[in-house]
Amino acid sequence: MEKQPLLELKNLKTHFHTDDGKLTAVDGISFQVKKGEILGVVGESGCGKSVMSQSIMRLLDEKYTTEYEGEILLHGENLLDLPMPNMQKIRGNDISMIFQDPLSSLNPVYTIGDQIKETIMLHQKVNKKEATKKAIEMLRLIGIPSPEKRMKEYPHQLSGGMQQRVMIAMALSCQPKVLIADEPTTALDVTIQAQILDLMVDLNQRLGMGVIFITHDLNVVSEICDRVIVMYLGQVVEETTTDHLFSKPLHPYTKGLIKSIPQIDGDRGKELHMIEGTVPSLNNVPKGCRFASRCPFADDLCKENAPELRTLEGNQKVRCWHIEKILQEEEGKYDITS
Ligand SMILES: Nc1ncnc2c1ncn2[C@@H]1O[C@H](COP(=O)(O)OP(=O)(O)OP(=O)(O)O)[C@@H](O)[C@H]1O
């Protein structure tokens, strides 16, 4: 039976009212996250990944600058319709978020224990003693040695990796249905990074949590994600399974990203492919395909007309006018290699 989505975005748009006019940083994003699934979100800097996740949590300034359109459905309920106090209950209880920089989310003047306990007591009906027990359990679960001792320490007394684990412990302490992880391991060294990713996958499988994993690192995507969306200038340009992303990327932008993955072994000496050009700015969004100025396939059609996201066989979705041409090239490639 097809799993029901935990979280579904339907044509989400996030607009900022600025001195330069109205800028649309997220422009019609739709996707689903199912129970126990890890959805990767990739794309170059500035393509709207963080604005999208902050929109899901409704963390942006709605009073003065930000305007949303579309739907963010959690179990069928549109989060964009909720009054802020209700939304605050959703945060931490149903959806949690972990950020790139752990120190920005940990309070330097409170001990680790107090911060986790406070999060637990804010979201669950438990007394202090029970909250302490749960906090220790969570630190143990997340692989922090001597959790009783760590509870009494302040954030600055912990290494970067430990701080990140504490933040993950806090995010998971209420067993959210959905976890949004925004570049959670970028600032960490490779060994710690691998340990934290293992932990996240383990918890995702054990707790059945849906995860939205935002990253620049396609190697990480290949290791942990089930499906991936590729974003470009506020839109999804490709959505596919992780297997297909690497074996059969179709959008020219996705192909460029895959080619620019640094090779650790093999291919040594081969020049790293960089996608030429830069992402257009939000106050100068092209009227045609947003990737056209950097695309080797682009012609007049692309420059004049914006392509829709098309669904292909295997539920792969691609926003490009030249899918057939690209598919033919792929076929050719397979003929030679098979
Ligand atoms: N408050 C704001 N007002 C106006 N524009 C904003 C605001 N916040 C973000 N933007 C713009 O929205 C676009 C998307 O930014 P966002 O931070 O989501 O990109 P990103 O893909 O997460 O990049 P990175 O990978 O570097 O974190 C950028 O052009 C950014 O300048």
UniProtKB/TrEMBL annotation:
CDD domains: ABC_NikE_OppD_transporters (cd03257). InterPro entries: AAA+_ATPase, ABC_Ni/Peptide_Import, ABC_transporter-like_ATP-bd, ABC_transporter-like_CS, Oligopep_ABC_C, P-loop_NTPase. Residues 7-258 form the ABC transporter domain. Keywords: ATP-binding, Cell membrane, Membrane, Nucleotide-binding, Transport. It is a peripheral membrane protein. It comes from the Bacteria. Its main location: membrane. PROSITE patterns: ABC_TRANSPORTER_1 (PS00211), ABC_TRANSPORTER_2 (PS50893). SMART domains: AAA. Belongs to the ABC transporter superfamily. This is ABC transporter ATP-binding protein. It comes from Ornithinibacillus massiliensis.
